[in-house]
Specification:
heterodimer, A: 383 residues, alpha+beta, MetI-like fold, four-stranded antiparallel β-sheet, globular, B: 480 residues, mainly alpha, 3 domains
Chain lengths: 383, 480
């Protein structure tokens, strides 16, 4: 090994600088905490939190621990992100395809949508939906039912609740269907490669995903009933809905604005992906006698997806991180519950902010590792 | 005349189909138009459901009749090609036309016809439309925040001078063009800093931070006269030395007090706000995040493993967390990490936080550009005997930056759109001021007007920026 001074010195200086900065910070933090009489530690997580959260997916009240409050916030963040991602993907794909439509009106309409929602700050959109648009909704007693069962009011959206019996059997039937589909796909690919025969995988898949859960209803003893929300009078002017599931207006405003905003970026990814597949590919595929459906499935989509998926995952990550703007309209997500209320109560600034940041960091880094792996897998194997 | 088959429009009966189709199409549009603008329902005698769908059905039949390929009429062919290629497209086109016609009257009446513009109290806003009086009355607050009315000329003057100074590049003759980079990278930010430091604030804003800025800028200027052999070590040592010298030996706090302009009142950063604060923050973050991002992009591609790991850690950390938690950190956690007598204004803390955050994104964008350059460029530069810095400054970076103009523009756009988040640290730029004005008891109930107003402003800024970046991209596009 021949170490050269020129190689070592810059690295050494950088490392020393970084270590010095961190040392300086830690030293100051220790002194500051000593002066203010704060002790460092994560023991507070098991203490009683004694604050309430308006909307939570798991059972929670003031007597539970701070750790449970953290979980409530995390689950709420995940809920908003998942709903937002689903809506944004559907909307984004539709708009992205519409952007490529030969129809002038559709094309311009999609372009208008993208340019409009992309250039307005997300926070402003959230405020707009929450403080301006949703406030114009009717009071519970004046609300008209949509399809007889949905009630959109100023206090939130009331939807019927599903009441399952033997839900686990239904769940297993879906899992079984998914596994069966995967097995059939693999088998079909083998058959195709060895004998050149095509098995109608798509039809079989659709059949399976419907028939197996249907069987679970007929044979497995699964039953489903709906509980429709009913208006109930509390006082002369105060009404609420009982029964069903109520989605708070914060959740609606947040998912709406997140998905409308992110869909514009996904639409651009989809457009770029489809445009990125050369015209020659399509023509070549058609010239060897593939049907239009086969061209789309076997030639265009695999290549387009390779371009679409990495930036789209990035957008999913952005959406998850942007969901932290929930704190601005008091939707109890991770930032509001934990880095807001819990921090105010305990005063453990360093611990709580570091846990919050670490949570988001874990989320994004795990997804980017997954993406890197996927990228490597689908990358063109150059010889 | 051949036989007319109404299920199959053909060219033989072109005129029959054309007149019939156009008539039906216009009838359908006319029906929706009357319904929407004059509230007249021509088909009111029909059952509700049918009356609702009738324009769509008529329009669809009309479009079906005029869908005749190669009709020889230029406009008809164009129409068919663009909005009427098949049944599905015809229905979509009709729906979009109907939606536009339907949504125009309510939008127009809200924005203009029923809106109130005059007066300066809430009482004039009785119509069903928007209350632009509210915006008019609150305009100063939305533009300048809590900045005292009598002092607002300082902000105006600073911004006008900065815009004028910024446009120098357009008028520079060829002789001065080579100094433009130096001007924009060093001198212009310094002037902007001085304007805001002495003029808009008029008092002790930046304290310790200002020593750092002055030290950095001084050392960069002196750095140009240092032989390139020693420049690396020079930049490692001198800025810190300068900072210490400035802080403890030359610039005492009294000098800063003395240094401020006579006759100007001190306006605390807490009173800054509105759109001008959006501009100040965007401007400084833009200036800071670019060099930091470039440094980390180079660090990530560096041959030294330790520097590479540190850069990767930095970039991935900032990219992994939401900006709101970063601002939380700068508000509640960062003061704990500093000595007690070390004061940093919260605006400066917010600017540092946003700059570091965006720098990570800039770094990734620039890295993309560096990776996209062919190896031959590096090898050619090396074979000419260029060192690391010379190679990057004269060969690699100019090409790489040209490649990533769209990416950088997107990052800057994101930066501008992220500025409203500074409400977390208690600073109120335009969106924050809107929320404050909305809760004013005298002006309750005008949230919509405020948000629409801010949305229009942001949309104009962002759209202009994206168009400008597109122009830049076209201008610097070079085929390789």
């Amino acid at each position: 090994m021949n170490f050269r001074l020129k190689d070592i010195v810059p690295q050494l200086i950088t490392v020393i600088a970084v270590v010095l900065i961190f040392g300086f910070f830690t030293y100051n933090a220790q002194i500051n905490m000593e002066n203010r009489g704060i002790d460092f530690g994560y023991g507070f997580l098991s203490q009683e939190s004694s604050f309430d959260v308006q909307f939570s997916l798991i059972e929670y009240d003031g007597s539970h621990s701070y750790f449970r409050a953290y979980l409530v916030g995390l689950l709420n963040t995940i809920l908003v992100s998942v709903i937002g991602i689903i809506i944004a993907t559907i909307l984004g794909v539709i708009v992205g395809v519409a952007r490529l439509s030969p129809n002038y009106l559709i094309n311009k309409f999609a372009a208008f949508y993208v340019e409009f929602f992309r250039n307005i700050p997300l926070l402003l959109q959230i405020f707009f939906w929450y403080f301006a648009a949703l406030r114009a909704l009717p009071l519970p007693q004046d609300a008209e039912a949509m399809f007889g069962v949905f009630f959109l009011t100023i206090k939130g959206l009331y939807v019927p609740a599903f009441i399952w019996q033997n839900f686990n059997i239904f769940f297993y039937s879906i899992v079984a269907a998914v596994i069966a589909i995967i097995v059939i796909r693999i088998h079909a690919k083998k058959v195709q490669e060895s004998q050149g025969k095509q098995i109608p995988v798509f039809l079989i898949s659709i059949g399976l995903i419907f028939i197996l859960p249907l069987l679970s209803f007929l044979i497995g003893g699964v039953s489903l009933s709906f509980e429709v929300p009913v208006l109930k009078q509390l006082a002369t002017t105060s009404f609420i809905y009982e029964g069903g599931v109520s989605l708070p207006p914060e959740l609606i405003a947040l998912t709406l604005s997140l998905s409308l905003y992110t869909a514009t970026f996904i639409a651009e990814c989809v457009r770029a992906g489809i445009q990125g597949v050369g015209k020659g590919q399509k023509e070549a595929a058609a010239s060897i006698g593939l049907t239009p459906n086969q061209v789309l499935k076997l030639v265009i989509m695999p290549q387009a997806l390779r371009i679409i998926i990495p930036p789209t995952t990035n957008q999913y990550l952005n959406l998850t991180k942007n969901s932290s703007l929930a704190a601005a309209i008091a939707y109890p997500d991770l930032v509001l519950v934990f880095a807001g209320t819990a921090l105010m109560q305990t005063g453990k600034a360093i611990e709580i902010v570091s846990i919050t940041m670490f949570t988001y960091l874990t989320l994004s880094i795990s997804i980017s590792i997954l993406m890197n792996w996927y990228n490597k897998k689908i990358a063109i194997q150059e010889k | 005349m051949s036989k007319v088959n109404f299920l199959k429009p053909d060219k033989a009966n072109l005129n029959t189909f054309l007149y019939l189709g156009t008539f039906l199409f216009f009838i359908s549009i006319f029906d929706v138009f009357l319904n929407s603008f004059f509230n007249v329902n021509l088909t009111g005698f029909l059952p509700n459901f049918l009356s609702f769908l009738l324009p769509l059905i008529l329009g669809f039949i009309g479009l079906y009749f005029i869908r005749i390929e190669y009709s020889g009429i230029k406009n008809l062919d164009l129409l068919n090609k663009h909005i009427n290629t098949n049944n599905f497209n015809a229905i979509l086109s009709l729906l979009i036309i109907f939606i536009i016609i339907k949504s125009l009257p309510p939008i127009l009446s809200w924005f203009v016809i029923d809106a109130s513009f005059a007066g300066d109290t809430k009482d004039v806003c009785t119509g069903s439309g928007a209350c632009w009086t509210y915006i008019k009355v609150w305009m100063r607050r939305f533009m300048y925040g809590m900045y005292p009315n009598a002092e607002q000329w300082r902000i105006n003057l600073s911004f006008i001078s900065l815009v004028l100074l910024g446009s120098v590049g357009y008028f520079a003759t060829d002789r001065f063009k080579k100094y433009l980079t130096l001007y924009y990278v060093v001198i212009y930010p310094l002037i902007a800093f001085l304007f805001i430091f002495f003029f808009i604030s008029g008092g002790p804003v930046f304290f310790d931070f200002s020593y750092g800025i002055i030290a950095a800028i001084l050392s960069i200027i002196i750095g140009f006269f240092i032989p390139s052999k020693f420049r690396f070590y020079y930049f490692l040592i001198v800025p810190i030395l300068l900072y210490i010298v400035l802080k403890y030996f030359i610039f005492f706090e009294e000098y800063i007090e003395l240094g401020k302009l006579d006759g100007l009142n001190w306006v605390e950063t807490g009173a800054w706000g509105g759109l001008s604060l959006t501009f100040i923050i965007s401007f400084f973050c833009l200036i800071f995040c670019f060099p930091i991002g470039m440094a980390f992009a180079l660090g990530r591609r560096s041959g030294f493993p330790l520097i590479r790991y540190i850069s990767v850690g930095f970039i991935e950390f900032w990219r992994g967390v939401p900006l709101i938690t970063v601002l939380f950190m700068s508000a509640v956690m960062f003061p704990m990490f500093l000595p007690e007598d070390f004061f940093i204004d919260k605006l400066v803390r917010a600017i540092i936080a946003i700059s570091l955050f965006e720098a990570a994104y800039v770094a990734e964008v620039i890295r993309g550009g560096l990776q996209a350059l062919p190896r031959g460029q590096y090898e050619a530069a090396k074979s000419l005997g260029m060192g690391y810095w010379k190679m990057h400054i004269f060969v690699i970076l100019p090409q790489a930056l040209k490649l990533v103009i769209p990416g950088i523009a997107n990052t800057f756009l994101a930066l501008v759109k992220d500025t409203p988040l500074i409400f977390v640290v208690g600073l109120l730029e335009i969106v924050g001021m809107l929320n404050l004005a909305k809760t004013n008891p005298k002006w309750l109930g005008f949230a919509m007007e405020g948000y629409v107003f801010a949305a229009i402003i942001f949309w104009i800024i962002c759209y202009a920026m994206s168009k400008y970046s597109y122009n830049l991209e076209q201008k610097y596009k070079t085929d390789r």
